[in-house]
Specification:
Elements: H1 2-19, H2 26-37, H3 41-59, H4 62-89, H5 105-125, H6 133-144, H7 148-160, H8 171-196, E1 198-204, H9 208-218, E2 224-229, E3 236-244, H10 246-258, E4 264-270, H11 279-290
Antiparallel strand pairs: 1-3, 1-4, 2-3
Helix pairs in contact: 1-4, 1-5, 2-3, 3-4, 5-8, 6-7, 7-8
Length: about 300
């Protein structure tokens, strides 16, 4: 979480802040207030996040609240560290990237969105967030059951509207901010789907019992057995289906290869799994499986 928030701080300090873009985020809102009041962005980010953290604790849960409290509190020190390093090294973030034809706003926009979206997806995957806007998005996701990427876009679009309060702010930059917010939501969904992706494995094999035992007792995953009839041979067979992580799928395929098991195998991608399939359930199963029995 510490490393991920350091990457997020780089996106804010070296891409978002120098460009003047207000992409939907608490950092963007902080930049708007900074340009109006002169209060440092790091202090504004801390204050706004503090209020939202209370909402996270109350409305989402203790685990999410504790993790987000840490990530939100660590962002401001990261931003302050980069401000201090710039002052010591004589670096001006506004001129760090030299563009021959003036400021390349699309470069700043895409750089910020891609870096931030990756950090958001990583933190959402461990039931945490970068704080701020992500808390609002998580609340919307939990209670309205809207995809997390869409929730990020909706909440961010509302914050983008605050850019209209910056005196003399360019309409071009405001529109870019809305576009960046929309891209942010799409990329968050893309990264989240990649992180959470599972494999639905279907296997037809005369040695299905060996594979069934391996999945249940070695991989500690459930599986379902179906009686099927081969359309070509009209023979009665058994099809085995299971949902596995990519790592578990690789182990299963290695098991089939090493033992030279005759099997017809297909695998498809599953982006989300709900219900009993979970890491926590798996850990409990592993503990029960490995616990010595009293005889």
């Amino acid at each position: 979480m510490t490393f991920t928030m350091g990457i997020a701080a780089i996106a804010v300090h070296y891409f978002m802040q120098p460009s003047g873009l207000v992409v939907g985020s608490i950092s963007g809102l902080s930049i708007v207030i900074y340009r109006i009041t002169g209060i440092p962005v790091s202090a504004l980010t801390f204050g706004i996040n503090l209020v939202l953290l209370i909402l996270a604790w109350v409305l989402i849960g203790k685990e999410f609240g504790i993790k987000t409290i840490y990530t939100a509190l660590i962002l401001s020190p990261w931003l302050r560290l980069f401000e201090w390093l710039d002052a010591r090294c004589g670096i001006d973030p506004a001129t760090l990237f030299n563009f021959p034809n003036g400021t390349d706003y699309w470069f700043y926009l895409l750089g910020f969105v891609l870096i931030l979206s990756a950090t958001q997806a990583i933190l959402f995957n461990i039931n945490a967030s970068t704080g701020g806007l992500d808390i609002i998005a998580k609340i919307v996701n939990k209670y309205l059951h809207i995809d997390i990427g869409t929730s990020v876009t909706v909440a961010g679009a509302a914050i983008c509207c605050s850019a209209f309060f910056i005196p003399g702010n360019s309409l071009y930059l405001i529109i870019l901010g809305f576009i960046g917010t929309w891209i942010n939501g799409i990329v968050v969904d893309y990264f989240t789907a990649g992180i959470n992706a599972k494999k639905r494995v279907c296997i037809i094999s005369p040695e299905y019992e060996m594979l069934h035992n391996y999945i249940v007792n070695e991989l500690h995953r459930g599986c379902t057995l179906y009686k099927v009839t081969g359309g070509y041979t009209n023979e009665e067979k058994v099809e085995l289906q299971s949902i596995l992580t990519n790592e578990e799928f690789a182990k299963l395929m290695e098991k089939i290869r090493v033992n030279d098991i005759s099997a017809f195998t297909t695998a498809g991608r599953v982006s989300e799994v709900y219900g009993l399939w979970s890491r926590r359930t798996r850990r409990r199963s592993e503990l029960n499986y490995n616990r010595p029995m009293n005889i």
